[in-house]
Specification:
Keywords: DNA-binding, Transcription, Transcription regulation. Helices cover 78% and strands 0% of the residues. The chain is mainly alpha-helical. It has one domain: Tetracycline Repressor, domain 2 (Orthogonal Bundle), CATH 1.10.357. It is elongated, with a radius of gyration of 20 Å.
């Protein structure tokens, strides 16, 4: 029952934010009475917290799944992970992002911290790609990841996305593309380096 309530709440919160969703709608979506809802979650705040924690775990599970596919090249996994994250976070409506930032700063901060920790954990993939000579050997990988994070944390915020009419997944895809274009060694660069030797 707990899982059913959280899944029903998640669908509503992702689409409309939590401010515009009331407990009557949540109970109806879960196919239960309000009394039953309050038995599991005495307050809406508790339900919001539990639901977004569940969402974070969904994202993390997919993240770990791709990370563990050692047979795939490191840059492929790097791009695939960011694509997966973008696909999951694209489900988050601007309304929910605004609600979190304005009314649940604690959860908004946790979401940013969660995103930061996950992206920092990709340092190993870039170092592996560096060893395979897929990215520039002189690249400072931790700094590059911090630069990627700075772009994400500056641009992928409600105010910027809403004012430019960008979705989260579009923004993350563009940031990832520009980032990888700057660090990947192209075939002509390999040839040039061989000639210099």
């Amino acid at each position: 029952m707990n899982h059913k309530i959280i899944e029903s709440s998640l669908a509503l919160f992702l689409a409309r934010g939590f401010h515009k969703v009331n407990t009557d709608e949540i109970a109806q979506a879960a196919g239960i009475s309000k009394r039953t809802l309050y038995r599991y979650f005495p307050s809406k705040d508790e339900l919001v917290t539990a639901t977004l924690e569940h969402f974070k775990m969904q994202v993390r599970t997919k993240f770990i799944l791709v990370l563990s596919q050692k047979e795939l090249p490191p840059l492929h996994r790097f791009r695939q992970i960011l694509t997966q994250v973008a696909q999951e976070l694209s489900k988050v409506s601007p309304s929910l992002m605004v609600d979190l930032q304005r009314e649940r700063e604690d959860i908004f901060a946790q979401m940013v911290e969660f995103r930061t920790a996950n992206i920092r954990s990709l340092i190993g993939l870039l170092k592996e790609a560096q060893e395979r000579k897929e990215i520039n050997s002189d690249l400072d990988v931790p700094f590059a990841i911090d630069m990627l994070l700075a772009s994400i944390n500056t641009l992928l915020i409600p105010e910027y996305l809403i004012s430019h009419n960008y979705s989260f997944d579009f923004g993350l895809e563009k940031i990832t593309q520009i980032f990888l274009d700057g660090i990947i060694i192209r075939e002509n660069e390999h040839s040039s380096k061989r000639r210099k030797k």
